[in-house]
Each structure stands twice: as structure tokens, then as C-alpha cells.
Design a protein that fits this description.
- Helix content is 23%, strand content 37%.
- The chain is an alpha+beta fold.
- The chain has two domains: 2-160, Proliferating Cell Nuclear Antigen (Box); 173-333, Proliferating Cell Nuclear Antigen (Box).
- The strands form three sheets. A nine-stranded antiparallel sheet has the order 10-6-2-3-4-18-17-16-11. A five-stranded antiparallel sheet has the order 5-1-7-8-9, covered by helices on one side. A four-stranded antiparallel sheet has the order 14-13-12-15.
- α1 (10-21) runs antiparallel to α2 and α5 packs antiparallel against α8.
- This is Checkpoint protein.
């Protein structure tokens, strides 16, 4: 069993692990010849199934195993994220699978360059040769190599063979979300208001804040909070409802005609004022705020609403080629499910 890779996008890798760590401490990391997958399946809360193209985070990449070159690992996201943070200013970073005292490890080796020169500038009249002599005398730049080790657990193929993405029905509404950090800011504000109201009413804030998210097929999105003490909402309009691809829908064009979202187009309005045509879910405010942290990665996000059942988010990470090659899928159950 062998894994070794050169990391070329430390910032994306660091932001990704930080976002995933907010939803669960452990991730199933699947390494193969074709892709890199992170999966989080907590006892409660949002499931994440991330499928990344190799060049999203790695440059040179090699994986070998007796199981068709597939390696399954259980990785603690906190230690991995801290190790990656230390490499943000590195000139190079390499990750490999190793072992110490029979304990499997992910070793992150980073190289940094520092200068021994205590002066900030050369004399104004110094020429090229003078600079070279000065560097030779004071030692010039110095490379430092640091290795950080993250204990992991190797998972046998039969341990993960029964893990599959949740099955959901066809969505009633699909819509491109506004910037996630904007949504996070508003949802965090709603959650704080609800907690403050709960403390004022009972002296404690132990109850979970339930946010209602709703969307229609006319480019409208609504976030609402309703409690005994308040009722507030924010509405977005002029968003995009992407067209369905017949090749991705059962029965092709006929399937699109019979699709729930096609029927929802006949209901509601583009100004968001109609009570008809909304598909809604009731979700935990704090959990939603954690999901929204993936907005730091940028990219396009499509939300699929299964009315009163589930909300599925597809986060497409931007690539140099402009193609959507990596996607993070979030499965959020509705309280009414």
C-alpha cells in the first residue's frame, strides 16, 4: 500500500478540511487513480460526500494497493487541518502514507525558505557582484524542512462497502444560491436573535433554532425564522433555476415534462409574493451555518429542495479550466421528514 502526492493548492485543501471539520471530527478519505473523496456521516446532522478531481489539490500523485489501487482511510480532520495551516507559506508540500511503530500516519512534509540576511536592503551603489559576495558571506537563503504526522486508521474494503449516498426523491425545486457567505451572515443573525429571544423568555437557550428555507421555480429564495416572539424573513429574487439535462433525467424529455419541478413552474411568481409554488424545508440554524462555511471555497452552488423532506446542496469548486470537475454534496434532512 502506497500513497504519495505533491500538494499544489494548499489554500483550497486547508479551507476544505476546515469546512468539513465543522461538521464532524472524522472523515472517510478514499484515494484512487481517478479521484479523491472525502465523506462525513455523523450520527446527527448533515452528510457530506465530496468528490474531487486529483488536480484540484494535488500535482504529482501516486496511489497503489492490492485493492485495485484504492486506499480507504479514517482521517481526523482537526489535526489534518492544523498541519495544512502550517504549510500555507511553504515553498512546497508533500503528503504520503507511512507508518511509525506500527501506527499508520499521513505525513505532511513542507519546505520553507528563510533568509539569514539581517539587513533589509543593499547599499544603493551595490552592483550584482557585490550582492553575490554579501550573500556568500552571510549565508544567503536557507531551506527548512518540517514533517508533521497525522495518525490515521486504514479501513478494509468490506468496512466501507456498505456506505452509500442517501437516496432522495426528485426535487420539487432546484435553484442557484446567492453567495454562501452572504447566506451565512443572515442565517447567523437569525440564529442569534432566536437564542436571545429564548433566553429572554425562559432564561435559557437550550432549544435548537429552526430556520425555514424555501424556493420556487421563478428565481426566488426565502429564509424565515418564526418563534412565539418574532417572525422575520429575507427574500432573494432574480436567481437562476437551471434547466434540467434530459440525459440526466429518467425517460429523457418525457421525464422532464413529468418532473415535479416542471409542475412547480406553473405555480408562484417571480416577485416572491405568492404563497403558491414554494418548496420548503425546516433545518437547524447552527448546522446550516456550519454548512455555509464551505462558501470560503467559492464556486457555484445549486440547491435542490424536496418539499418537507430534504435539502441537497451541490457545491461545484472552480477550476483553472473553468469546468466543474469537483463537487461537494451536502444532504440536509428537514425536521418534518
Amino acid at each position: 500500500m502506497r500513497f504519495k502526492a505533491q500538494i499544489h493548492n494548499i489554500q483550497t485543501f486547508t479551507k476544505l478540511t476546515a469546512s468539513l471539520n465543522s461538521l464532524g471530527p472524522l472523515a472517510w478519505l478514499k484515494l484512487s487513480d481517478e479521484q479523491v473523496c472525502f465523506t462525513i456521516i455523523p450520527e446527527q446532522g448533515t452528510q457530506v460526500w465530496a468528490v474531487l478531481s486529483i488536480d484540484t489539490i494535488f500535482d504529482t500523485y501516486a496511489v497503489q494497493s492490492a485493492a485495485n489501487n484504492v486506499i480507504n482511510l479514517e482521517v481526523p480532520l482537526g489535526p489534518l487541518n492544523r498541519a495544512l495551516k502550517s504549510a500555507l507559506n511553504a515553498t512546497s508540500a508533500q503528503m504520503r502514507l507511512t507508518k511509525k511503530d506500527s501506527i499508520p500516519l499521513l505525513a505532511l512534509t513542507i519546505s520553507t525558505t528563510s533568509s539569514n540576511n539581517s539587513y533589509s536592503a543593499f547599499p544603493a551603489g551595490a552592483n550584482r557582484d557585490d550582492n553575490a559576495i554579501f550573500d556568500d558571506h552571510f549565508g544567503g537563503n536557507r531551506e527548512t524542512i518540517i514533517t508533521q504526522e497525522v495518525p490515521i486508521r486504514v479501513l478494509a474494503p468490506d468496512v466501507v462497502s456498505g456506505l452509500h449516498e442517501p437516496q432522495t426523491r426528485e426535487p420539487d425545486v432546484h435553484i442557484v444560491l446567492p453567495p454562501l457567505m452572504q447566506l451565512k451572515s443572515i442565517s447567523d443573525r437569525f440564529t442569534k436573535l432566536a437564542m436571545a429571544g429564548a433566553r429572554a423568555g425562559s432564561g435559557t437557550a437550550t432549544t435548537r433554532t429552526r430556520l425555514e428555507m424555501a424556493a420556487n421555480m421563478h428565481g426566488c429564495l426565502k429564509m424565515s425564522l418564526k418563534t412565539d416572539a418574532m417572525s422575520i424573513s429575507s427574500v432573494w429574487t432574480d436567481l437562476v433555476n437551471p434547466e434540467l439535462d434530459p440525459s440526466q433525467v429518467a425517460n429523457g424529455d418525457i421525464g422532464i415534462v413529468e418532473h415535479p419541478s416542471t409542475r412547480m413552474k406553473l405555480l408562484g411568481s417571480a416577485d416572491g409574493q405568492s404563497d403558491e409554488g414554494w418548496a420548503s424545508v425546516s433545518i437547524d440554524g447552527k448546522d446550516w451555518g456550519k454548512v455555509m462555511s464551505v462558501g470560503r471555497l467559492g464556486g457555484r452552488v445549486i440547491a435542490c429542495f424536496c418539499h418537507e423532506h430534504a435539502l441537497i446542496l451541490y457545491v461545484y469548486l472552480p477550476t483553472d479550466s473553468g469546468e466543474d470537475e469537483s463537487v461537494l454534496t451536502y444532504y440536509i434532512s428537514s425536521y418534518s421528514a
